[in-house]
Write a structure and sequence with these properties.
This protein has helices spanning about 10-25, 35-50, 65-90. It is mainly alpha-helical. The radius of gyration is 14 Å and the shape is globular.
């Protein structure tokens, strides 16, 4: 986990958006457990489509980068997939 310290701004931004979603939309923390990973890959693609040619495009609701929302969605999908694989191997 030593490498996390080399991406502090990225992790801070991702955690901000996750916290924002909990507060703004009333989502449960880790409420994605049990959801299919494809749901979050689709969300990542929606944010990707909003980027266009500008990586600095801001999400209107959160006032954060669409790129950050993409990262959140991809990390959630990855976590769901890895958890599923781990469960299968137990």
């Amino acid at each position: 986990m030593d490498m996390m310290r080399y991406l502090p701004k990225a992790f801070e931004s991702v955690c901000y958006v996750l916290d924002w979603a909990v507060k703004e939309h009333g989502y449960d923390k880790a409420g994605w457990r049990g959801d299919p990973p494809e749901r979050y890959l689709a969300a990542a693609m929606r944010h990707y489509m909003k980027l266009g040619d500008d990586l600095l495009t801001i999400d209107e609701e959160s006032r954060r980068l669409h790129l950050t929302h993409m990262a959140c969605s991809v990390l959630i999908a990855l976590d769901l997939l890895l958890t599923s694989l781990e469960d299968e191997n137990e």
